[in-house]
Amino acid sequence: MIKVEKIPNILVIGDLMIDEYLWGNCERISPEAPVQIVDIKKETTLLGGAGNVISNLVSLGAHVEVLSVIGDDEVGLLVKSMLTKQGVKASLIEQKGRKTSRKTRLMASHSQVVRYDKESKNNISVDSVKALYEKFQEKINSYDIVLLSDYNKGVLTNELLDKVITYANKNSKKVLVDPKGNDFTKYKGAYLLTPNKKEAELASNIKIENDTDLKEALIKLKEEVSLEVSVITLSEHGIAILEEDKVTVKPTVAREVYDVTGAGDTVLASLGFALSLGYGINTAVEFANLAAGIVVGKIGSATATIDEIEEYRASLHKSSIELHIKNFEDIEKLSKRLKKQNKKIVFTNGCFDILHKGHVSYLNTAKSFGDVLILGLNSDQSVKRLKGEDRPINTQDDRAFILSALECVDFVVIFDEDTPYELIKLVEPDILVKGADYEGKEVVGSDIAKQTKLVTFVDGKSTTKTIEKIQKVK
Fold first, then answer.
1. CA-closest candidate to residue 172, choices 188, 159, 187, 191
2. Looking at residue 253, which CATH number applies to its domain?
3. Span 207-217, mean pLDDT?
4. Where are the stretches annotated Cytidylyltransferase (predicted)?
5. Of 187, 90, 100, the residue nearest 135 (C-alpha)
6. Binding site listing for ATP
7. Cβ count near 35 (within 10 Å)
8. Which residues are annotated as a binding site?
9. Catalytic residues
10. Is the same domain home to 278 and 337?
11. In this predicted structure, what is the pLDDT of residue 243?
C-alpha cells in the first residue's frame, strides 16, 4: 500500500461532461406504447469524462488542475460550478456554438433503462487548440504528472496530442492516457496507455483469446506507440503489464460488481496518483486494482478514498469478523465517511461479558434505530474497575470477536476509560442507546448524540445470573 507523504500536483487534459442520473421506480407499462413508465424520485448530477478522473483524484487527495474546451452554454456553466465546488483549478476555453457534453441516464430500480446524449463531437477549433497549448506550456512545470482523458469528443485532437506529449517529454513529465479509437499512434511518446481489452484488440488488430495473444498485443502497442510501459486492463481479471519480455497480470478482487461505469477513469487517476508520488509501475498497478475493486461495487460513476482503499486492502487479508473491530483512529475516519453517505449512526456500549439472549435482543433493537450500529466495548481493565477483580470472564479480544460476528453489530471499538465519552465524541452518533435501567438517570454522551433511546432488557437474562448458575453446577 502506498504512503502519501506529499500532496501530488496533477494536470488533467480532456473531454469534460456532465453525467446526469434520473432515479425512479417502474411498476407499469405505458398504454401509449410498449415501454416502461418510470416514476422519477430523484436526480443526481456528476462530473463525467475527464471530470470523473478529476473527481477520483480529488477523492484521493491530490491537487488538480484541468485544461479543456467547453461550450458557451448552461452545461458549460454547470461544469465550471462543479469544478469550483471540488476546489479544482480550471483553465477552460469557451468555444462559441459548441455543446458541452451531457449524458442523461434513466435508472429504474438501479438498472439503466436508456441513455440520451446532447453534445458536440467535432474537433475543437484551431484557435482553441492554440489557446489550450499555450496554457499547457505555462503550467507544465507546476505539475508532477499529466493525465489525458480522451472520450473522443474533440478536445484531444491529433495536433494537440502531438504538441502536449512532445513538450511534456522535453520537461521530463510522464504522460498517461486513457485512449479512444483504433489508432493509438496519435498518442506516440506517452509513458503509458490504459486501454481495456476491447480497445487494445481494435488498436492492435489482435484478437486476445489467450496469454500468447495478450503478450503480442502488449508488445505491438508498446512498439507502435513508443510507450515506456505497456498495460491492458482486463476488467475483473485485473491489469496486464509487459515487463521486459514477460507478461504479468495483477489481479483485482471486487466483492460485488454493480456497475463498471467510470472504472477506467479510476484506473487512470489511481495510476497517475501513485506514479506522481514516485512509486514504480507494479505498486501503482496494485493500487489501481484496489481502487477499481471499490468503485465497481458502487452504482454510477464513483470514486475511492485512500481510507477506503486501505480498508479494502486489509479486508483481503483478514477475516470479515476481524475487519469489524476498529480502533479510535479508524472509527473516527469511518464515522465521518458514513455521515457523508447520509447514514444514521447508532451507538451503544457495555461489557457484554458472557453473551446471552438478552444482549442479542438489546443489540438487535438498537440496530433497528438506524443504519449502522457502533458498539463501544469496555476493556478488561475497565470491566475490573466496574465489576470487580474476578471479571471479566471473557477477555476483551474474545468479547470483541464474538460481538463482531453478530449480524446486527457493524463495528466494535474497545475503550479503556470508565465511560465511553471520548469515544462518543469521535463518533458523534445520531442515536445513543442504553438500557431501560437508565430511566431518570444521566446517560453519558447524551449531550453529543442527537437523540437518546432506552431499551428494555429481556427479563431473567444477565451475565451475573449466568455466572451464579455455573457456580451452582460446580
1. 191
2. 3.40.1190.20
3. 94
4. 347-474
5. 90
6. 196-199
7. 11
8. 196-199
9. 265
10. no
11. 85
